[in-house]
Hints:
By secondary structure, the protein is α/β, with parallel strands linked by helices. It has a single domain, classed as Aldolase class I (TIM Barrel). It has 13 helices and nine strands. Bound molecules: S-adenosylmethionine.
Amino acid sequence: MDWIARLRAGSDLEDEGLRALLAGEGPDEELFAAADQVRREHYGDAVYVRGLIEISSYCRNDCLYCGIRKSNSNARRYRLDQETILSCCREGYALGYRTFVLQGGEDPFFADDVLCGIVRAISREFPGCAVTLSVGERSLDSYKKLYDAGARRFLLRHEAASEELYRKLHPPGMSRENRMQCLFDLKKIGYQVGSGFMVGAPFQRTEHLIEDIRFLQKLSPDMIGIGPYLNHRETPFRDQPSGSMIMTLRLLAILRLMFPWALLPSTTALASIDPSGRQRGLQAGANVVMPNLSPADVRDKYSIYDNKLSTGNESAQNKADLEKVVRAAGYRIVTDRGDVKR
Ligand code: SAM
């Protein structure tokens, strides 16, 4: 069966087809080439850049895989104040960035009034720019206030669509249903919504990945963030193997074929696992990169996994180098807002 041609034609693949593609029976090179073709039909050779500002390493959650989980008493905690966040945006704006992503742990300090104040200040100073938030689960009312303040995009990976896997990755008290509800709430409000999951998370099997894909089909997000799970030495999963680049590339390509309009980042995790990860992610269908705009002295404190890159091409300040890498991969950096083209 030619699963790639079926996906290319817009057919919904049965689980059998997804299993075959995830097993590398595409074969991979054909899968990646088809994904690249579809991405070019929708987005040409454009690669959108987002300036990523990691606003806090405090987190009230205790996700078992994450280095900034509440129980990691060795994690170095920091939070950025409004003026520091604005100066990151100013630096990013001068470099040509027109989208700012504020990401952080679920830090109670960033209550609605504080975060809305920051979003309003960015929107006022940079009216042509998009503000994206990635600050975890909040109430419908809170998401509405942030939208009214000017935020227009929200990234919230669903993490695991399988209840069985979700339970193994998260402590009691965290709920897959609530996370999914948050995603539907965000969509209802009018945000451009991004979801996603880690590839190769502990205990994850192919069937779980298929459930993730099925959930994404139900949600129909604008953005899909996936990256390999990477080990962190100070989590309960310290002895678990990390995810692989090849599985991440296969999933990127499958997602590009199934969601041709999607904004798909070639993530820092993918670049951290292999020096060619960033380029190969782009060549497998990704069309977004999110270099780091956080102040240099806090970058290594946002340590969600070991050996996370934040310098070199990951640094927003090294835009010229990033441009070179993207050009060598066959694409072109575009610095406008980079809205989804549905
Ligand atoms: N608190 C926000 C949230 O929950 O969406 C944003 C911050 S959270 C650290 C961002 C993402 O990092 C998570 O969605 C998770 O998939 C990813 N992440 C956390 N630990 C990771 C690890 N060890 N390897 C790879 N990705 C990880």
